[in-house]
Design a protein that fits this description.
By secondary structure, the chain is mainly alpha-helical. The chain has helices at residues 7-22, 35-59, 65-73, 75-107, 114-130, 133-160, 178-184, 212-238, 240-245, 249-254, 267-296, 306-319, 324-366. α5 crosses α11 (267-296) and α6 (133-160) packs antiparallel against α11 (267-296).
């Protein structure tokens, strides 16, 4: 495969993918004030998952997840697993698309049909995927700096406002002990850390592939710090009860920013910022699905596949749930338990074990 992504672009893509939608929500609400501790703790599992994914990649450095599955399991079972992952990446893109459709519908374009907004949004995504991962990588490299600057600026603005940040809201800390808190927040393994599975489709495209493991670990650590700071901000400004009950605590937090009458309405600025993060996350998942499909079908020109996949995401996002509460309930319950955990954790671990067992048997037969 032609190398297209620099190691820095890979770092930015890995960092912005989970952050794109995870930053919107209060992660691990069951842990309440200790949610930020859980995010830092479970980043270790996120690192372990990346080591598993990268170990498999190192066995087949020219292959993606979809193309090395048939080499490990055989053509029939491996192809079925490859198709399952293509469907999984498409479904993940669909869920993120619905998240941002709901955000825009609730806070910005209340009187605009979700279908109208969705059509405009999906056209930009299709265009980005049509132009290839190198163009997406170049764009995300630029936007990442803008996102970080705005995040740091907004953090200082909120911190400088009197009676907004109340650090005492963070107490008590670990009142039930660390083990009790970790048991309540185990879903963090799947969301956000398990989402990095999608990069098994992009490893072969990275130019300096000998640095992938170090950069992947650095990205997860960066992600954990950013998201834990996010949760600390939610708790200290909104209070744990409101932060865990509102649909979009990040937007509610930024609504507290008021600098004169001119900057009293900052919603649209941050909504656009969130939309950029969501745009890249959807692009990465959908590109992985398009790339995997082209590899299974042995297609040389993959650009046209972005159109049908984009249409599938648009239509599916409208059909997966009747309303936003149902969408969230399904995502945090059924999807994590029966979709994310098997696809992100169980199958990769079994695949690595099968690889080692097959090689052990082959080596014994040679002797």
């Amino acid at each position: 495969m032609k190398k297209k992504i620099s190691i820095y672009q890979f770092f930015v893509l890995m960092t912005i993918l989970p952050y794109g939608s995870a930053s919107l929500f209060f992660l691990a609400p069951e842990a309440k004030q200790d949610a930020w501790i859980c995010l830092l703790s479970y980043s270790l599992i996120g690192i372990l998952l990346q080591i598993i994914y990268i170990t498999l990649y190192n066995k087949y450095p020219e292959d993606t997840l979809v193309t090395y599955m048939p080499k490990i399991y055989g053509k029939f079972i491996g192809s079925i697993l490859g198709i399952m992952y293509i469907v999984y990446f498409t479904y993940a893109a669909t869920r993120v698309f619905r998240d941002f459709s709901e955000l825009i519908s609730a806070f910005s374009l209340q009187h605009t049909s979700k279908l109208i907004f969705g059509m405009v949004f999906i056209i930009t995504i299709i265009y980005a995927i049509y132009n290839g991962i190198e163009n997406i990588s170049n764009l995300v490299q630029l936007c990442f700096l803008i996102i970080i600057i705005i995040k740091i600026g907004s953090f200082f603005l909120i911190s400088s406002m009197s009676d907004v940040v109340k650090l005492y809201n963070l107490k008590p800390i670990l009142s039930d002990g660390i083990l009790s808190v970790l048991k309540k927040s185990w879903r963090l393994i799947a969301f956000p850390y398990g989402e990095t599975l999608v990069f098994t489709m992009l490893y072969p495209l990275v130019i300096e592939n000998n640095k992938i493991k170090k950069v992947a670990i650095l990205s997860i650590v960066t992600e954990a710090i950013l998201l834990s700071l996010n949760n600390i901000l939610f708790i200290s400004t909104l209070g744990v009860n409101f932060a865990t009950s509102t649909n979009f605590p990040l937007l509610e937090t930024y609504r507290l920013i008021q600098i004169s009458d001119f900057f009293s309405k900052t919603d649209i600025i941050f909504i656009l910022l969130f939309l950029v993060g969501g745009f890249f996350k959807i692009c990465i998942f959908l590109y992985a699905a398009v790339l995997g499909t082209s590899q299974i079908l042995n297609l040389k020109n993959t650009r046209f596949l972005s159109i049908p996949f984009g249409i599938i995401v648009l239509i599916s996002s409208l059909l997966i749930a009747k309303n936003y509460p149902q969408h969230i309930k399904t995502g945090l319950g059924y999807v994590i338990n029966y979709v994310h955990i098997p696809m992100q954790i169980i199958i990769p671990i079994i695949t690595l074990l099968v690889y080692y067992i097959k090689n052990l048997i082959l080596n014994k037969n040679k002797i």
